[in-house]
Amino acid sequence: MNAKKSDKIATGIIYGLVGIVVAILISLLGYILYNGVPDVNWHFLTSEAQSFSAGGGVRDQLFNSLYLLVLALIISLPIALGAGIYLSEYAKDNWVNDVIRTSIEVLSSLPSVVVGLFGYLLLVIQLNLGFSIMAGAIALTFFNLPLLTRNIEESLSSVPDLQREAGTSLGLSGWKTITKIILPMALPGILTGLILCSGRIFGEAAALIYTAGQSAPSVDYANWNPFTETSFLNPMRPAETLAVHIWKVNTESVTPDASVISSASSAVLIIVILIFNLGARYLGNKLFKKMTAAK
Amino acid sequence: MDDIQTRLQKSSRATRQDYFGKVICYSCIGLIILLVACILYFIASKGLATFTQNGVKFWNFLTQSDWKPGDVDKYGNPQVGALPMIVTSFSVTILAALLATPFAIGAAIFMTEIANKKGAKFLQPVIELLVGIPSVVYGFIGLSLIVPFIRGIFGGTGFGILSGTLVLFVMVLPTITSLSVDSLKSVPMHYRQASLALGATRWQTIYKVILKAAAPGLLTAVIFGMARAFGEALAVQMVIGNAVLMPKNLISPASTLTSKLTTEIGNTVMGTLPNNALWSLALVLLFMSLLFNLIVRFIGRRGNIKNER
After folding, report:
1. How much of chain A exceeds pLDDT 70, in percent?
2. Which of B132, B269, B16 minimizes the C-alpha distance to A269?
3. Contacts of A13 (CB under 8 A, 6+ apart)
């Protein structure tokens, strides 16, 4: 067999493999959207879930997911920012930082169920938070921190050293250089990473089953005081998220229309994550153009 | 005079700012390290309690196949044999990786070497989106598509290792593909130019030059995919059938380490043997995750040495 022929055959095989991959990917997305979207309507998004009868919605689950996402980001962003700045600006190349980088890698590759169980042990049992939004948000922080940190570090490191030298030569302190020059320049990258992390948090379920709990007590959306029991902002109430809800109705629940609920909820999840992805792309490009004056 | 002296000896505003910033950053990184240490310590101490407090022999835990942590066998030993879960976990992981690797590397070669800009521009976002799809959605699709499909072809319940493998295959495919693309892209352009200038065909260039240069990266991609498959809980739990039996074939219900953990940890009482035994399963997961990390580092180091020469 000569080289030309094997080139043709190999190319053909690769095309075949890619064709199968594309078919799988497209049919996957198509299946979720085709089956789910017709059932997503205003009633589904705004009514309470039903345990024993058909026709329930996902109002509370949807809100819980968003609320948990916001809380988790509020907790994890400052820590990740500090850690990212340390790794990119202060960390020298020695064994201590080697250990630090390795531990962050270990944390990022831990199975989410292990993180969830650790959250259950530490937050729910030892710290006595019970199944609560707070415990869930902190568990999501554990899960999110390494990724966000690495993303921030990468964005900061990609800022050219010229900028740091310029800051120093103007007589700025190192900290001022970082916060006023380096950070704004790295912002588009950081923001893109933040949005992508949000997508992951939004769909995470394994870390939440034993931290935020699997029940969604009905809450009062008119009560804005977070310290009262029935308020929707109360961080100490158990909260089932959308992803946990899909798992729950498929495994343990007796709801008669489980498949309708899960396909519609899956579609909602996918659409939200699609919006996050496209938003990250769009915002990253736009901010980059604005800040670097590149057309 | 004294005034000037104190002013000169006092640290400047810039120094104090620097100090302030450093304290913040060092405490943030300290917090993360503390967290990692806590996770390792808590899981290890809980997981080892089965062996230290409850007197289960470590070897029996790894090699016996009866999982009834509440009962004792005829010799009075607790029946904590995790072998079925370990075997199932490894089989779904390895089968899914074996199945996904050719497709993923094929797709990655297509995107970096063959496709024109349009094709790559179309595939890239789709694959990125699929990496981000929540695992419960994969589980739900497995439950509503793959399980009935397997049931229709092979009979039985449809739950089992085969269904788990197929779900994981679809899950790790985008992960391995996108990491492989990164690794193929990092092969310097002049390798390709040199090979083509020697008169090699495209396939010869890919096969003899690019794939060889990118081999450590590709291997890392596969291992990351395996780590993801091994640690995946809910998607697998939904399609594997959750029966703690030694898997006899690919279509009988089985149970992985992660699926056992998710279903049982809420039903046991803290501090008892059935609960501790579950933490031992979590410890096995943790250990495997560390091992995957170690392999990736090892490959990275080998790859570096090779490239430097």
Report:
1. 94
2. B132
3. B106
This prediction's pTM = 0.86
CB nearest B28 (choices: A28, A82, A270): A82
What number of other Cβ atoms are within 10 A of residue A292's Cβ?
10
Q: Hey, where are the domains in chain A?
A: 1-39, 43-292
List, for residues B234-284, the tens digit of each pLDDT value.
888 888 877 777 777 777 788 888 888 888 877 777 777 788 888 888 888
Beta bridge partners of B254: B241
> Which residues are B78's β-sheet partners?
B72
Residue in chain B closest to A15 (alpha carbons) equals B110
DSSP summary character for residue B12: P
Chain A with chain B: Cβ pairs closer than 8 A = 249
* Rounded Cα distance, A107 and B195, in Å: 41
The minimum CA-CA distance between A71 and chain B, rounded to whole Å, is 18
Is residue B150 over pLDDT 90?
A: no
Provide, as residue numbers in chain B, all residues whose Cβ is less than 8 Å from the Cβ of A176. 14, 17
User: Backbone phi, then psi, for B69, in 5-degree steps?
Assistant: -60, -20
Interface mutation target, options B137, B184, B283, chain A, most CBs of A under 10 Å? B137
CATH classification for the domain delimited by A43-292, as one of 3.40.50.150, 3.40.50.620, 1.10.3720.10, 3.40.1360.10 = 1.10.3720.10
Put simply, whether A87 touches B (Cβ < 8 Å) is yes
Name every chain B residue with its beta carbon within 8 A of the beta carbon of A127.
none
For B73-103, how does the pLDDT look when each residue is reduced to its tens digit (9 = 90+)?
Answer: 666 667 777 888 888 888 889 999 999 999 9
Report the candidate in B223, B232, B233 with the shortest Cα–Cα distance to residue B101. B223
- At A174 the pLDDT is 84
**A293 DSSP β-pair partners:** none
What's the whole-number average pLDDT of chain B? 84
Q: CB distance from A127 to chain B under 8 Å? A: no
Q: Which of residues 189-218 of B touch A (CB under 8 A)?
A: 200-204, 206-207
Provide the pLDDT confidence category of residue B306 given band limits of 50, 70 and 90. Answer: low
**Distance to chain A for B5, nearest Cα, Å:** 23
B305 vs A231: which has the higher pLDDT: A231
| ipTM given for this complex | 0.84
Q: Report helix, strand or coil for A68.
A: helix
Distance in angstroms (rounded) separating the CA atoms of residues A251 and B140: 10
Q: Give the count of beta carbons closer than 10 Å to the beta carbon of residue A193.
A: 22
Single out the residue of A206, A285, A292, A114 nearest to residue B125, CA to CA: A285
- Cβ <8 Å between B22 and A22: no
For residue B106, list chain A residues with Cβ-Cβ distance below 8 A. 13-14, 17-18, 21
Q: Does A211 touch chain B (CB under 8 A)?
A: no
Dist CA B202 CA B193 (whole Å): 11
CB contact under 8 A, B129 and A103: no
Tell me, what's the pLDDT at B309? 43
Task: Report how far residue B295's alpha carbon sits from residue B224's, in angstroms, rounded to the nearest whole number.
Answer: 10
- Average pLDDT, stretch A127-145? 87
